[in-house]
Amino acid sequence: MKSKDKALAKHVEAVPTGVDLDGFLGRFTMEFDCYDEIVKRVGEELEANGMPSGEIETLAYPNAIHKIASLSVKHNVTERQITKKDFLSNLMAIRKTAISRWTLALKTREKLLQARRKQLKIHLDKNSRLRYFVIDPSNIKDFDSEIVLLFLTTLASITLSLHTSTHLSYVFMQTET
């Protein structure tokens, strides 16, 4: 067996001499079910184990793929192991759709992104901000008159956007004299 690929060199060297690779490859077959059939069977198993059917396609299945991918990259063998009970209870507790390179490769990519947008929308629709200003009066010349200008310019710039609900808090530091 020969290969010019240096990345494969150690694997090529590990093959004992005298092995009939052509004979092996002539009998070797790998068969996989159709992707859609695998997804369907996994969905049925998730439903049979208590996952609501309406959450399988956009919540449970992508999070299952994400969980498996996250576990598979761990170096420690024991960290890559999980019981069926723990796996399912983790899936049941998740309320957000996982978006990762693994879940984006699924056929339901658009549905996943749409579900995630819907989950984030309630937070993204809000445009409220909380701002704090810490002011040391000893560092501002003519503090009594300048502070009023600071308040006016800050409020004017923030209220330009009428839909913004911004709360301002000013903290004044008192320095000992």
TrEMBL record:
Q: What is this protein called?
A: Uncharacterized protein
**Native source organism of the sequence:** Vreelandella olivaria
